[in-house]
Amino acid sequence: MKSKRTASIRIETYEVTTVRRRPLTLRAWCVACAAEVEMLSPKRAAEWAAVPLLTISGWLETGKLHLAEIAPGCLYVCRNALEQQMKECAAAKDLKIQPQASPRSTTRRNRSNSKGELP
Ligand SMILES: [Zn+2]
């Protein structure tokens, strides 16, 4: 009678899963600025600029902000472009306020001139 030989094969597998949150800011290359700049996650950009996230989305859609895809589906906003956009918004607000202020100052000047008195 033949002897029966058996062999056992044991396969062990294991899996390591690393869960890491996206950093809120990082340094990365901005193509539009042609420089390595600080990049903010869209949420962090909204917090930094004190505007709703929807405003950030609108600025991105209109090309007012630079966008970099660091990894697939991982978008970051260029801080330089965000700062520039904030300056433009502040300047636009000043322009809106000035036309209201100018007529008053003109009126005051006219009044003092018509009476012949110095202010
Ligand atoms: Zn940029």
What does this structure look like?
The protein has 119 residues and is of the alpha+beta class. The protein has a domain at 25-106. The chain has three helices and four strands. The protein has helices spanning 42-49, 53-61, 79-115; strands at residues 25-30, 35-40, 67-71, 74-78. A four-stranded antiparallel beta sheet has the order 1-2-4-3. A hairpin with a 2-residue loop joins strand 3 and strand 4 (74-78). Helix 1 (42-49) packs across helix 2. The radius of gyration is 31 Å and the shape is rod-shaped. The N and C termini lie far apart (127 Å). The model is unreliable at 100-119 (pLDDT under 50). Bound molecules: zinc ion. Residues 30, 32-33, 37, 66, 78, 80-81 line the site of zinc ion.
Strands of the biggest beta sheet: in what spatial order?
A: 1-2-4-3
Proportion of residues in β-strands: 15-25%
Shape: rod-shaped
Total beta-strand segments: 4
Low-confidence stretches: 100-119
Number of helices: 3
| Quaternary structure of the protein | single chain
The pLDDT mean sits at 82
- The radius of gyration over CA amounts to 31 Å
Q: Give the ordered list of helices and strands.
A: EEHHEEH
Query: What level of helicity do the residues show?
Result: 40-55%
Largest sheet, if any? Answer: 4 strands, antiparallel
SSE-based structural type:
alpha+beta
- Roughly how many Å apart are the termini? 127 Å
